[in-house]
Amino acid sequence: MSRAAGRPTLDSVAARAGVSRATVSRVVNGLAVTESSQAAVRRAIDELGYVPNHAARTLVTQRTDLIALVLPETTDRVFSDDQFFPGVVNGVSQVLEQADKQLVLMLAGSAASHARIERSIAARHVDGVLLASLHGADPLPAALARIGIPVVCNERPLGSTPLPYVGVDNLGGAAAAVGHLLDSGRTRIATIAGPQDMIAGIDRLAGYRSALHGSSRRSIVAVGDFTLDSGMAAMRQLLDDDPGLDAVFAASDLMAQGALKALRDAGRRVPDDVAVVGFDDTASARHTDPPLTTVRQPIIQIGRQMARQVLRLVAGDRIEATTTLPTELVLRQSA
Amino acid sequence: MSRAAGRPTLDSVAARAGVSRATVSRVVNGLAVTESSQAAVRRAIDELGYVPNHAARTLVTQRTDLIALVLPETTDRVFSDDQFFPGVVNGVSQVLEQADKQLVLMLAGSAASHARIERSIAARHVDGVLLASLHGADPLPAALARIGIPVVCNERPLGSTPLPYVGVDNLGGAAAAVGHLLDSGRTRIATIAGPQDMIAGIDRLAGYRSALHGSSRRSIVAVGDFTLDSGMAAMRQLLDDDPGLDAVFAASDLMAQGALKALRDAGRRVPDDVAVVGFDDTASARHTDPPLTTVRQPIIQIGRQMARQVLRLVAGDRIEATTTLPTELVLRQSA
DNA sequence: CCGGCTCCTGAGAGCGCTCTCACACTGAGA
DNA sequence: TCTCAGTGTGAGAGCGCTCTCAGGAGCCGG
User: Whole-prediction pTM value?
Assistant: First the structure.
């Protein structure tokens, strides 16, 4: 039979150390206390194995030390195959760990889970919210803004709710990719765009267009949904539309891999017949055949920066509404 | 200026509904209450937008409704490229959502984060713990067992701490793969094993050995760490060791992809010269060249089952210590 | 018409912590 | 010697909830 009624409390530590509860609290929270009671309290804490009760602390401080990462996609898609989500989680968790906060993961696939997440956040179950992978008409940003909790988005939220966000230079990256294709003498440059209800899809297409605009080249566009299969389908369609194309910019590495497959199936050599550039620089880009030239976005940095920003909001600081991280063209063999 | 002092409490709802705090609590928790007060309370809750304070509730019930998923690998590796982690998260989160629990993600890369996680769990910050990707000498299982919190592991924990776990039939899957290679007439069958401080690495190698044992074939082994690069290196070494080999079983799809690359570089055709079988059936297995024959493990089910088990432990039920999910050989073109 | 039963309700204690406030004690300055 | 800062400490209220317990209302049989 173990000792009755569980864990030691502030009171039991206080009793053992021969001081008041308030003094123990001061020691635990690092406030001024004489050397001697300090020592006595520390010894009592060690001997009793005291660990503060988080709920009790939360009840009075109104802080939970929890940050939510909300992924409002269908769970299948979030996890499908690109490495965006794990990278962001990684970055976020690095920063939260240093700040001694915990990460609560909320996947919002269904309408029901949407409601549940909103309720949980309205209940101030967490101190702040990170919102990733936003789609066009998502009502969550507006709902959170109404609740008035610190929120930081990944990429500029579509719709009318202005929320601080951390994004990457999609436009510049796409333009750099297309610029590289132009510089290397390609003349008929197509693009496989991403979903047009996501900033990453929209802005990368815009970057493609703006780069072509400078030259007198015509734009050739097919739209995918960032997945490999959609890239394959889009590439086939592009070849149908314009068999003479000599380059493709795909808005994700996965779609670029699909394009590579479709091109191989169609008997085109890469990069000899058709140059291919991707976007993301995921781990697999190094291993495609040929290795993929692509636009690197600093995924872990995105996570880190989002976490830093939300922590500053939680702490009551003001932050700049917009952070844009640079992208970088990585040259390999496919273009 | 907004209304003073924040959110409505049980008391304010009670006042508005003209009943006592206890009655409101009963309504909120679905206990017996007359029709009329029921209605009055519901109306008051709606009008006030009342949401229960989670910390206050936790303080008295001793439940947090939080389940931790601990990934005690270096974060880089967890997220590297295979899809195991996202799949497990997905499954776990599906089940937790239904049970109205939240998922707390804890990445234990460094020793410091290890300590932090232990502290957080010792403080009963969560109701239960899911432990994945265990490595050999990890002290966490023992530490958690000592704390006496509900824990469910992914795969049998190495070391002497007996904890309930959910695993897959690694041995049977590997044996099936090798059996298929034997059946199709391959005679010199090598394996690229996984890390030998992880169950998945150990058992898949054992499965390979046991299948070969039945025939009179010699085993040819190289060890990788589940990554593509390690698979490539291992394949090169195997070709050095035994240029006449005609089949390889790789303990992960990623290593199989590395093997595919190394074989192509060495001028071997797959499957004509060398057959290749992987393990996992990740999304990318369908897209390798040639498409990968592999052993499918039901990753999402693992997550689901782990979550179910830990919820039962939290609820005070007894559970069977061991759950083994089936694996299944998926035939494609590589073998 | 009364005792006993069931059912619902309200009062109130208490979960473990933080934080304000007042008090005791020191030492410097008048 | 007395006042006045300045410093450390303890008492106690209160965070918002659950849950026990006693009491009141309603209904039955006697």
Answer: 0.91
